[in-house]
Write a structure and sequence with these properties.
With 306 residues, the protein is an alpha/beta fold. 42% of the residues lie in helices and 22% in strands. The structure holds nicotinamide-adenine-dinucleotide and ketopantoate.
């Protein structure tokens, strides 16, 4: 019997994963917030519309609410970092003794919080360069084809479910160094995203601020080394410059969140980096100043700073 993929959070990434897994014939259940959301989904025909290369496909996926009684053996957590811990906590009574959790959150901090809440579960962390956005409820656009790194910092053995990803056409690789990947992505996001918000520009606009970017990269490199992640620091500045160039026409995810009045994941990106620097007594004055400016900006916009 194939194991059911429970997908917690029917947003951009959750819908993208659920649609691809279900399209491959695997059993999938979306877990929705509450009964009204479930009713709305069922009224819409209990299907996700996936738009890929301009072609749309309706994929039937069954759904349920958190207080359903079906046991959960495999849970893909696709909420934002700030929602993940509480969302998983709501499901604890349903997790089987050998449950596996796959955590799609960007940044760092939420994964440890979830793992502490569900100590019996094996937690796989993911770092993805795929891009998706929700055009409307239950309709997701696969905007950026990419790659997903997966790993478990406590156990280098690959899990049994990797073939399901292969069958679903989800490009991925298992790595024993997932923390290095997550730290590297966090550093890239810290060097780019806050500055795009503060300068109100696309990623390419940072080409007008080379000294600011270089100073942040230098501090981030030191921080990664202090945190025992020297590999994540290698050639950081040149990769940041490459990403700025390659994504010059795009708005960063944090810029999009702020301009659409949405809560950001600041606490799991720049906030996490600054807290780690303090813990390790690593001097990062420009990063701290950046965090202060970003927090002031968010407050001025009426947005949450946690
Ligand atoms: P999203 O806001 O589109 O989706 C999150 C969904 O989780 C929402 O539908 C929300 O209602 C739901 N949710 C929250 N709490 C819940 C609960 N208790 N029960 C049920 N549902 C709940 O977010 P997203 O863009 O899919 O991002 C998810 C994570 O993936 C983030 O950490 C993000 O940084 C990361 N990520 C996203 C992308 C992308 O392209 N969207 C790419 C890489 C990484
Ligand atoms: O991941 C990104 C984001 O916008 O969140 C990039 C494109 C790397 C910019 O930091």
């Amino acid at each position: 019997m194939p194991v059911t993929w429970h997908v917690l959070g029917a947003g951009s990434l959750g819908s993208l994963w659920a649609a691809r897994l279900a399209r491959a014939g695997l059993p999938v259940r979306l877990i929705l917030r509450d009964a009204p959301r479930l009713a709305a989904y069922e009224t819409n025909g209990a299907a996700i519309t996936l738009v890929e290369h301009g072609v749309e496909q309706r994929v039937p996926v069954s759904a349920q609410v958190a207080d359903d009684i079906e046991p959960i053996k495999r849970l893909l957590v696709a909420c934002k970092a700030y929602d993940a811990e509480q969302a998983v906590a709501n499901l604890l009574p349903r997790l089987s003794a050998d449950a596996e959790l796959i955590l799609l959150q960007n940044g760092l901090g939420s994964q440890d919080a979830v793992a502490a809440r569900a100590p019996q579960a094996r937690c796989t962390f993911a770092s993805s360069t795929e891009g998706a956005f929700r055009e409307q409820d239950w309709r997701v656009v696969f905007a950026g084809h990419g790659f997903t790194w997966l790993g478990d910092p406590r156990n280098p053995m690959p899990p049994s479910w990797l073939p399901d990803l292969h069958a679903s056409g989800i490009p991925h690789q298992w790595t024993p160094d997932i923390l290095t990947r997550l730290w590297r992505k966090l550093a890239l996001n810290c060097a780019i995203n806050p500055l795009t918000v503060l300068h109100d520009c696309r990623n390419g606009g940072l080409q007008q601020h080379p000294c600011e970017v270089a100073t942040l990269c230098s501090e981030l490199g030191e921080l990664l080394t202090c945190c025992g992640q020297p590999e994540a620091a290698l050639e950081l500045h040149s990769e940041v410059e490459r990403v700025i160039q390659a994504t010059a026409a795009n708005y960063s995810s944090m810029h999009q969140d702020v301009s659409q009045g949405r809560r950001t994941e600041i606490s799991y990106l720049l906030g996490y980096a600054c807290a780690a620097a303090q813990r390790h007594r690593c001097a990062v004055p420009h990063l701290i100043q950046l965090q202060k400016r970003l927090v002031e900006h968010l407050v001025a916009q009426g947005l949450r700073i946690d």
